[in-house]
Design a protein that fits this description.
The chain contains 14 helices and eight strands. It is α/β, with parallel strands linked by helices.
């Protein structure tokens, strides 16, 4: 199986080198969402479909953006029905609203769920197809409506990524929507949108970004640009996470975490993810565990499993985080980095185990995780079924 998987992912990444992945126009800095009206006007847009959720609307996070749309004479319609783990049904509702209002642009204001839903909506608005037809790999063949993404969490990096996670309303199966066509045209990294984020959400979304960066960095697919972005993301999170966690209104820390999430996503666009996401997706699908928490829970354990294959890379991350000097032995540095991940996870008070996880679910979880990881990701070291069972035992035991 490992040989077949290596050949399959090797061919996939060889082909990917010939696929141009767009990098969105990116705005940074507090208050930058207040310029979106001028962006819409510059593109000739007259009616924006705003995809968001009820908490964002209640907190008034989008007001500065709405003011900018009004100033530029841009109309808007709001779909705020997105919930954690967005579904095809939510996308259908948003598409119906957008078509009824004649929307010619989509603006996502929210976390990863909102941005993922908006990507599917932007594609379905122009294709004439049911949104479900676009879930999968390279299933968007028409140019989506222009999409601007304003993340309100520093985690998923969906504002620059080629992917979206969409659930089936009936089976609850989480499908991966992957294609360069759905990358937003504009990413607005505005730390002001994140200052009200509670500590536990700051922590879980940060671990989503950290997992993106680390998995991209240790991937078997070597890419200097991806490794640079991933390394910078890891360093930023190591430096600023605790400030953002303890002092939520610190704009410098929030801006840094937003940039880290963005860089981490740019890295996994090029280098893919790994077992943390493959198994984490199962915990969100089976037990509705928040995504960042699910993938972060696996991160240190997967690093321990992969240590003998990624020692040199983890040593470089340790140096980038100031945990040691390049003159130290690679093995010692790598272990320092893994220890730091364990420490960070504990200090931000994330739960070390999943109480809902059942051993009776192991066979299906492992089957689905292997299907995702071994056929899609350039993991540095393949797991056996016994390895996977031991990994899940760690998540039960904590």
């Amino acid at each position: 199986m490992n040989i077949i998987a290596r050949i399959q992912t090797g061919l996939l990444f060889t082909a990917a080198k010939f696929i141009k992945v767009p990098v969105p126009e990116t705005w940074t800095g507090a208050g930058s969402r207040g310029r979106i009206g001028s962006w819409c006007r510059s593109r000739g847009c007259r009616m924006a479909l705003v995809i968001t959720d009820k908490p964002v609307m209640k907190l008034g996070i989008a007001k500065k953006m709405f003011d900018s749309l009004k100033k530029e004479g841009i109309g808007w319609a709001v779909y705020d029905g997105v919930l954690p783990n967005p579904t095809v049904g939510m996308a259908r509702e948003a598409v119906a609203l957008g078509k009824a209002q004649g929307a010619d642009a989509v603006i996502a204001v929210g976390g990863g769920s909102v941005m993922d839903c908006a990507k599917l909506v932007a594609a379905a608005m122009t294709s004439g197809k049911d949104p479900k037809k676009h879930v999968g790999k390279f299933r968007v063949w028409t140019k989506p409506l222009p999409l601007a993404a304003v993340p309100t969490t520093a985690g998923t990096g969906s504002e620059v990524s080629v992917g979206a996670v969409i659930s089936d309303d009936v089976t609850h199966w989480k499908g991966l929507m992957i294609t360069p066509a759905i990358v937003p045209r504009l990413a607005v990294l505005d730390g002001e949108t994140m200052t009200g984020l509670p500590p536990h959400l700051t922590a879980s979304t940060a671990f989503d970004a950290l997992t993106h960066a680390v998995e991209a960095y240790i991937a078997r697919n070597d890419d200097a640009v991806a490794e640079r972005d991933a390394r910078e993301a890891v360093s930023l999170i190591n430096t600023h996470l605790m400030t953002a966690f303890k002092k939520g209104k610190d704009i410098k820390a929030r801006d840094a975490m937003a940039l880290a999430a963005c860089k981490a996503a740019l890295a996994f666009n090029r280098n893919s993810l790994g077992y943390c996401h493959a198994f984490g997706h199962r915990l969100t699908g089976f037990y509705d565990l928040p995504h960042g928490l699910a993938v972060g829970m696996f991160l240190p354990h997967v690093l321990e499993f992969s240590l003998d294959r990624v020692e040199g890379k983890l040593a470089k991350l340790a140096v980038a985080c100031g945990l040691g000097s390049a003159s130290e032995a690679a093995g010692a540095l790598a272990r320092k980095f893994v220890k730091r991940v364990f420490e960070l996870y504990a200090v931000v008070k994330l739960p070390p185990k999943c109480d809902a996880l059942k051993r009776s679910d192991y066979p299906q979880i492992i089957k689905e995780a292997f299907k995702e990881a071994n056929a899609t990701y350039a993991v540095p070291k393949y797991m056996s079924r016994r390895n996977a069972e031991a990994l899940l035992d760690r998540i039960i035991a904590g």
